[in-house]
């Protein structure tokens, strides 16, 4: 066909039929319309052929055929075909016109009422008038209301009304069949049908199904391809049968079939050859079933699988018109030209037909015509008109010049060079500066002249030229190849817990010349759209997709597609949402027995994590203590039913939970309740024993049964007892333990037993146990107590046992009472510490019937006494009459209680120590050894030893200040030397300025702190600082002591940088003071004059009150001189008692202050806090965060020896920047 953009005048057009005639049924002359419209140049004319014979003369403007007013209807019936003449002749489809009079109903006699019994089946026949048009049937009542249809009442394709079984309320007199013939626009109501249904006992006699339609067990159906197939299966029976459809050779596809009329119809629309086969219908109720087989054969009217096309041809070309038609049976294909069969025309050697293909060789302009191909079989025929137009037309390039093509790497590009002419123009493609395009293996030319380039790359970017051979026509095109869009981080396969968030990545790269690409996410091939009102999906600019609060429905296949104007790329991932399993359901109890029941259940959803086990829970209503759900048992996942053993006289409920890798499901709905009947007890209580505490009573106790073990009402315990050796049992009953028998005597053996009993009887016969009446204290004491020495601190104690009768109970053993009477003697300076009572009085227990016991861990140089007594559960008996006395010898002393040292000078070290807590004898002196340790060696060949007297202080002189000494000190007794106490130490090291400091800057001051060396000598230094500004000058602080650990520079300017140095030394540091913060006050009442005046008056009044308070405070308070003296005496007494170094807190002092002594207390606190008497002995310690804690050391004595008392922290908080710190921390640690 000639393209619309080809410019050429005076080109003729073959006729084309635009409206085809359609087969139909005419009920009147007005219905006779056979349309036939066409286009062409020159304008076409029309003629009609009926039943193969000329019917109408030539028509000009329109070919539509209608009936004339006076014509008879019946003769018009026939087969019609329209012929359209112009540049050749086109032929229409064959149309069948059927004529019928408008259907009417013959007069019918009113039928008698038909009588039925309830439960019978029935058929009401419609018998509509015969017509070529199938009427639509409506069963209605006299008020034009449809008869309700259901599984029991339905209609068939023939219009009859079928009852599978009748009910009494089916009785009525106005069943009316209405036949609606749509083409004739008429509704024909049939005569009313009356039926009467009488009740009958036969309704109780159910019957198996039978088919009302179709009849028999087999039927056959022929259906044409494209038509609709409807199979009927209408059964009768009682109860109403259910219908199931099957296909014998393959399962029925819900996408292909529909079930209508309550599954009484199976319908397949647009039947294809694949629907050919055997189908079955099964009708079934409780009485049986019936089956019907349907053999469906699918045939086909002819249809085209290949069509010939209209073309313009140049003289001398070969024309090949290919067509192919299919059908069942196979259609016959014939060719015609301009309405006349080719087989009936003069033979032409240039024209022949082969397998349905018409071939014309060396065509000329005279061969221009309309060729028709027609396919026919027994089911119908089809026809196609094909135009062969032989003409000479000049060539033209129809594609626009200077087009620019863009593509990405790897794509296939088509550079267009669309041409038209007759004959078809030949084109040639050239690459600028590279020669013929077809020389490149990736490039090929299509039949219509376009250049196809496959797998393009950046090297293919160039200018291309298309030119028409034998003419000077050409166009140019530019190809630009860009980088391919890539997904560099595709979505992954994620497994996510329900409720968590999931993020699917989709990072990509695009060419910089392309605009921002479009990102489209899909879930299971459906687009995902994010909304501002819903944060379920959030798409990020980098391509990732965030899914919030994932649920089970979010599981699926996710794909992201990155699209630009040139290409697109996609990648897929998945999300599997994991969750606890769904609750099991459909719990059923079966096989109900007196002591067991079988529980079954259906599994819940696995939620993408396989179920590993089930947890069965039960609740017993009979037992108040068990009135809650408790786990009964766990079973593997392949078990869905379980026999559960039950207790009598209880009501049970059950429920089930599923467990998977994520967790445990919610419980299933509870099962129905199940109650077991009562029974005699199955068991007796356990642990029957006597726990008698009174010496003249027998207390029997036992472990109570759980209430669910009572097995019935009226439960109690029956208690039996008799003295051992008696034959007669005493008995009683109780509801719970204990049971007390009074007056049996002391420690008499009894046989006892307890039996469970309820209203239905007693439990099994219990076994008798041995019990005893209450015990009393033993009467005898052990005799022949003797002691033999095993070593210096260990002895062996022996005794003779007491008689069994005197124990008056179960002998639990003997107790050895050891009392320490103190050391035999002690040195004047080796005062022992007060021993606790547990050390002075010891009790060693010998369990059972032992007659000897090893007594160890006695103290050296001590006196002891011991006695032995028997004991039972009631208590101890009398102690042995003879008190044994023993004494231990001296031993080596224990270690010193403490060892400290200090260095009064560079060559001296003073050692101080405390006597051993355990001297183990009389101290005779001390042994001091010291030496210089050699790193990596344990040699002590340079050790010096000194025997010291009983003093607790010694000063070593002429020491080397550069050496770290190792000291070892031990105490001596006549038995030898004791364990040493060791330590290392050296004299004071040389002082130096601090190398690491901490700076905290305020607005006008800066706090400087540092950590002194471990034991440095005091060193004096100063701080030098410079304000970094035009007028800045170096300033130097006063001298600072290295042990001071804190200093404050003040008088600084806010908001400036400062440089800080330490002299002497090379330390340099910079800091910046804080700047003042300025705030603009909003315009409000605080800026009003009246408010400012009020505040000023309040400030003045507050100032006056503060002055009065200060005056009153400076006058001081009165206190009792006697109280003051008593305080001093108490202080002296405390020191005298040896509590050296133990200080009382200020809080305790304050608690003792009376109201009259308040000023004295304040004075004491002030003096305690003052540093005036301590000089430079302040010790500043630092916390880990750099803050510091001031601690006082003791007051130095005139010789420079500091106190060994403990230091006490005072006011550890950092001071405000405004406080001045000249050369000490007095201001920082001043009065509270």
Automatic annotation (TrEMBL):
One of its GO terms (cellular component) is plasma membrane. It is found in: Cell membrane; Cell projection, Growth cone. Residues 583-679, 684-776, 781-891, 892-991, 992-1089 form the Fibronectin type-III domain. Coiled coil: none annotated. Residues 663-692, 1191-1232 are annotated as: Disordered. Residues 15-99, 103-194, 209-297, 302-389, 395-476, 485-570 form the Ig-like domain. It is a single-pass type I membrane protein. One of its GO terms (biological process) is axon guidance. CDD domains: FN3, Ig, Ig4_L1-CAM_like. Gene3D superfamilies: Immunoglobulins. GO terms for molecular function: cell-cell adhesion mediator activity. It holds the Pfam family fn3. Keywords: Cell adhesion, Cell membrane, Cell projection, Disulfide bond, Glycoprotein, Immunoglobulin domain, Membrane, Repeat, Signal, Transmembrane, Transmembrane helix. The chain crosses the membrane at residues 1090-1111. PROSITE patterns: FN3, IG_LIKE. Neural cell adhesion molecule involved in the dynamics of cell adhesion and in the generation of transmembrane signals at tyrosine kinase receptors. During brain development, critical in multiple processes, including neuronal migration, axonal growth and fasciculation, and synaptogenesis. In the mature brain, plays a role in the dynamics of neuronal structure and function, including synaptic plasticity. Belongs to the immunoglobulin superfamily. L1/neurofascin/NgCAM family. This is Neural cell adhesion molecule L1.
């Amino acid at each position: 066909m000639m393209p619309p953009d080809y410019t050429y005048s005076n080109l003729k057009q073959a006729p084309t039929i635009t409206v085809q005639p359609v087969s139909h049924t005419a009920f009147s002359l007005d219905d006779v319309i056979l349309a036939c419209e066409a286009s062409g140049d020159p304008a076409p004319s029309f003629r009609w052929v009926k039943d193969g014979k000329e019917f109408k003369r030539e028509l000009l403007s329109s070919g539509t055929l209608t009936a004339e007013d006076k014509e008879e209807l019946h003769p018009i019936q026939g087969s019609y075909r329209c012929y359209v003449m112009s540049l050749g002749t086109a032929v229409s489809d064959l149309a069948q016109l059927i004529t019928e009079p408008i259907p009417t109903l013959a007069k019918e006699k009113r039928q008698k009422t038909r009588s039925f019994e309830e439960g019978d089946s029935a058929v009401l026949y419609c018998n509509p008038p015969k017509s070529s048009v199938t009427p639509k049937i409506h069963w209605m009542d006299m008020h034009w209301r449809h008869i309700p249809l259901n599984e029991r009442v339905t209609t068939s394709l023939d219009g009859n009304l079928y009852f599978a079984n009748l009910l009494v309320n089916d009785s009525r007199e106005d069943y009316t069949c209405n036949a609606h013939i749509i083409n004739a626009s008429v509704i024909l109501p049939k005569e009313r049908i009356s039926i009467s249904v009488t009740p009958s006992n036969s309704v109780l006699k159910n019957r198996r199904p039978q088919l009302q339609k179709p009849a028999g067990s087999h039927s056959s159906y022929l259906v044409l391809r494209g038509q609709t197939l409807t199979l009927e299966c209408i059964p009768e029976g009682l109860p109403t049968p259910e219908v199931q459809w099957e296909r014998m050779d393959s399962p029925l596809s819900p996408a292909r079939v529909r079930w209508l009329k309550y599954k009484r119809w199976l319908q397949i629309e647009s039947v294809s050859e694949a629907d050919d086969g055997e189908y079955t219908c099964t009708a079934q109720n409780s009485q049986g079933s019936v089956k019907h087989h349907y053999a469906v054969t699918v045939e086909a009217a002819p249809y085209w699988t290949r069509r010939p096309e209209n073309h313009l041809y140049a003289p001398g070309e070969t024309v090949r018109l290919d067509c192919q038609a299919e059908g069942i049976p196979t259609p016959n294909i014939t060719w015609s030209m301009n309405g006349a069969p080719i087989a009936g025309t003069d033979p032409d050697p240039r024209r022949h037909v082969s397998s349905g293909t018409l071939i014309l060789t060396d065509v000329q302009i005279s061969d221009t015509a309309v060729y028709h191909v027609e396919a026919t079989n027994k089911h119908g025929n089809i026809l196609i008109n094909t135009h062969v137009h032989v003409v000479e037309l000049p060539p033209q390039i129809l594609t626009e010049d200077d087009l620019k093509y863009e593509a990405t790497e790897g794509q296939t590009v088509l550079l267009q060079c669309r041409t038209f002419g007759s004959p078809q123009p030949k084109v040639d493609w050239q690459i600028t500066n590279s020669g013929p395009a077809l020389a490149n293996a990736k490039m090929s030319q299509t039949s219509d002249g376009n250049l196809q380039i496959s797998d393009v790359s950046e090297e293919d970017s160039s200018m291309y030229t298309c030119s028409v051979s034998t003419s000077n026509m050409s166009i140019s095109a530019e190809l630009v190849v860009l980088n391919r869009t890539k997904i560099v981080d595709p979505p992954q396969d994620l497994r996510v817990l329900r409720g968590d968030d999931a993020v699917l990545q989709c990072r990509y790269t695009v060419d910089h010349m392309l605009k921002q690409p479009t990102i489209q996410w899909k879930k299971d091939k459906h687009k995902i759209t994010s909304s501002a009102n819903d944060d379920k999906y959030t798409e990020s600019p980098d391509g990732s997709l965030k899914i919030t609060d994932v649920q089970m429905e979010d599981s699926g296949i996710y794909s992201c597609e990155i699209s630009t104007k040139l290409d697109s790329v996609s990648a897929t991932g998945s999300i599997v949402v994991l969750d606890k399993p769904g609750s099991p359901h459909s719990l059923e109890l079966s096989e109900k027995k007196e002591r067991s029941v079988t529980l079954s259940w259906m599994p819940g959803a696995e939620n993408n994590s396989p179920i590993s086990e089930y947890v069965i829970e039960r609740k017993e209503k009979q037992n108040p203590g068990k009135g809650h759900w408790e786990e009964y048992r766990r079973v593997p996942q392949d078990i869905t039913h379980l026999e559960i053993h039950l207790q009598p006289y209880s009501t049970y409920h059950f429920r089930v939970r599923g467990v998977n890798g994520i967790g445990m499901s919610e419980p299933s709905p509870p099962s129905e309740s199940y109650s077991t009947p009562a029974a005699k007890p199955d068991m007796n209580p356990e642990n029957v024993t006597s726990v008698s505490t009174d010496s003249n009573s027998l207390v029997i106790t036992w472990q109570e049964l759980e209430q669910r073990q009572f097995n019935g009402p009226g439960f109690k315990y029956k208690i039996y007892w008799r003295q051992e050796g008696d034959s007669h049992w005493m008995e009683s009953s109780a509801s719970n333990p204990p049971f007390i028998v009074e007056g049996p005597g002391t420690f008499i053996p009894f046989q006892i037993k307890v039996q469970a009993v309820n209203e239905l009887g007693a439990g099994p016969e219990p076994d008798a146990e041995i019990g005893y009446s209450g015990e009393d204290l033993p009467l005898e004491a052990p005799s022949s107590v003797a002691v033999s020495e095993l070593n210096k601190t260990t002895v062996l104690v022996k005794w003779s046992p007491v008689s069994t009768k005197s124990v008056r109970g179960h002998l639990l053993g003997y107790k050895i009472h050891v009392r320490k009477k103190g050391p035999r003697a002690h040195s004047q300076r080796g005062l022992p510490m007060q021993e606790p009572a547990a050390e002075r009085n010891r009790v060693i227990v010998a369990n059972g019937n032992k007659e000897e016991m090893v007594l160890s861990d006695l103290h050296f140089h001590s006196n002891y006494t011991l006695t032995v007594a028997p004991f039972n559960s009631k208590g101890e008996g009398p102690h042995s009459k003879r008190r044994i006395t023993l004494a231990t010898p001296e031993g080596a002393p224990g270690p010193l209680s403490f060892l400290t040292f200090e260095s009064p000078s560079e060559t001296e070290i003073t050692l101080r120590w405390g006597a051993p807590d355990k001297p183990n004898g009389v101290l005779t002196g001390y042994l001091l050894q010291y030496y210089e340790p050699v790193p990596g060696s344990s040699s002590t060949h340079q050790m010096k030893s000194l025997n010291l007297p009983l003093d607790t202080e010694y000063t070593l002189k002429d020491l080397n200040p550069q050496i770290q000494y190792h000291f070892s000190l031990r105490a001596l007794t006549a038995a030898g030397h004791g364990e040493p106490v060791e330590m290392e130490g050296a004299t004071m090291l040389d002082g130096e300025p601090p190398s690491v400091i901490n700076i905290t800057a305020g607005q006008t001051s800066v706090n400087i702190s540092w950590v002194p060396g471990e034991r440095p000598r005091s060193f004096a230094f100063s701080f030098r600082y410079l304000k970094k500004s035009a007028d800045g000058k170096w300033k130097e602080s006063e001298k600072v002591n290295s042990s001071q650990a804190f200093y404050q520079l003040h008088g600084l300017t806010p908001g400036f940088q400062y440089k800080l140095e330490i002299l002497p030394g090379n330390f340099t540091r910079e800091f910046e003071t804080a700047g003042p913060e300025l705030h603009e006050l909003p315009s409000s009442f605080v800026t009003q004059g009246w408010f400012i005046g009020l505040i000023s008056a309040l400030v003045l009044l507050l100032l006056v009150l503060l002055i009065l308070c200060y005056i009153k405070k400076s006058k001081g308070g009165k206190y009792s001189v006697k109280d003051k003296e008593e305080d001093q005496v108490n202080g002296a007494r405390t020191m005298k008692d040896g509590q050296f170094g133990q200080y009382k807190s200020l809080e305790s002092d304050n608690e003792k202050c009376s109201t009259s002594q308040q000023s004295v207390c304040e004075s004491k606190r002030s003096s305690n806090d003052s540093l005036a008497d301590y000089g430079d002995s302040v010790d500043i310690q630092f916390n880990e965060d750099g803050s510091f804690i001031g601690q006082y050391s003791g007051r130095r004595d005139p010789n420079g020896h500091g106190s060994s008392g403990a230091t006490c922290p005072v006011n550890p908080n950092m001071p405000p920047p405004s406080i001045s710190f000249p050369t000490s921390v007095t201001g920082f640690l001043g009065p509270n």
